[in-house]
Design brief:
Elements lengths: L9 E6 L12 E2 L4 E2 L2 E3 L2 E2 L14 E2 L3 E9 L5 H9 L3 E3 L4 E6 L8 E7 L4 E17 L6 E7 L2 E5 L20 E5 L2 E2 L3 E9 L2 E4 L10 E4 L3 E9 L4 H8 L2 E9 L5 E10 L14 E8 L9 E7 L5
Antiparallel strand pairs: 1-2, 1-10, 3-7, 4-7, 5-6, 7-12, 8-9, 9-23, 10-11, 11-12, 11-13, 11-16, 14-15, 14-20, 16-19, 17-18, 19-22, 20-21, 21-22, 21-23
Length: 312
């Protein structure tokens, strides 16, 4: 009897033309580290009386389809997640190509994602997936991954794949060693770690339907937040926080082969932090920052990915 193993799991992704309708072709194989994407339906306990101490049969509740996908930050496949987060990019150049994703789009593309466990076999197609949140952490060492939180319309399970033969991408993975942080165009020193979270704050359209699925998933006011932990060496960031001023922060990765990913936050506001002396070791300060729309640029953030992919 075959037993499912994560090592043999597969994931394929394609953007939809019609929300909730998986395309018949155009799927791409996605690298991923783990996923909680799935559908669940709780049981509601019976509240009826008069039938003794033993409860009556439970009633099925509403179906919820969502979950997280942990993916590597790489030069090619990560562009699909950026498109899901921000919409289609503006692409310039030919080999290499520069893809610029901008925040503020009123509509977001939906995806169909299939996860497969061929041993069972079980192939689950999640249609109507909309990206709710994208987050990652910068630090000195370790594996560099991002977490994509998705809201799906529903799940369809089969014994054979519906993704055909997905296209394969070359994995060119960024590492923490390739990272850099700049403030207003100059390198920001003494950074211990940084967290970045972009949220579309998806609003589920939970109408009454015969199939129990949601009617859609609409983005509302976006949010871009994070934190920067620094060794306390000067008062530059503290002074900015006290004055209530904004700065531009840029989080970037670059490979020796020329591929790069740059995430520019145009207007970052810092809170005034508590500076604690907890012992004889170095003093560190944490700034839980928030981003807002920059009136000059006209948006909150820009993600730029340079690779050999011609179109996303």
């Amino acid at each position: 009897m075959a037993r499912a193993q994560g090592a043999r799991a597969q994931m394929a992704l394609a953007f939809e033309t019609v929300y909730g309708t998986p395309p018949v072709s155009g799927f791409t194989k996605m690298p991923f580290a783990s996923t909680t994407l799935g559908a669940e339906q709780p049981l509601l306990n019976s509240e009826l009386l008069g039938y003794g101490r033993d409860p009556l049969a439970p009633v099925q509740g509403a179906v919820t389809a969502d979950g997280d996908v942990v993916v590597p930050l790489d030069a090619e496949a990560f562009g699909f997640w950026l498109k899901a987060a921000f919409g289609s990019p503006t692409t310039t150049g030919i080999g290499p190509c520069t893809h610029e994703f901008q925040s503020g789009a009123w509509t977001l593309p939906s995806l169909s994602i299939e996860t497969g466990m061929p041993e069972v076999p079980r192939f689950a197609m999640y249609s109507g997936c909309v990206l709710d949140q994208l987050s990652w952490q910068m630090q000195r060492s370790g594996l560099l991954t991002a977490t994509a939180r998705l809201v799906a319309q529903g799940e369809t399970v089969g014994t054979a794949t519906s993704a055909g033969t997905p296209a394969d991408l070359e994995l060119k993975r960024f590492g923490h060693f390739n990272g850099s942080v700049t403030r207003n165009g100059s390198a920001l020193g003494n950074v211990v770690s940084a967290d970045i979270t972009y949220a579309n704050n998806i609003d589920r359209i939970e109408t009454i339907r015969a199939d129990g699925r949601i009617d859609g998933a609409d983005p509302s006011i976006a949010a871009l937040t994070g934190s920067i932990e620094v060794r306390f060496a000067d008062s530059t960031l503290v002074t900015q926080a006290i004055n209530g001023e904004a700065c531009e922060l840029e989080f970037g990765y670059a490979l020796p082969s020329g591929e790069s990913f740059t995430f520019t936050v145009q207007a970052v506001y810092l809170p005034r932090p508590r500076i604690e002396i907890s012992g004889p070791q170095g003093v560190q300060a944490t700034f839980d920052w928030q981003a807002a729309r920059d009136s000059t640029v006209g948006r909150m953030c820009t993600a730029t990915l340079i690779n050999d992919i011609e179109v996303y």
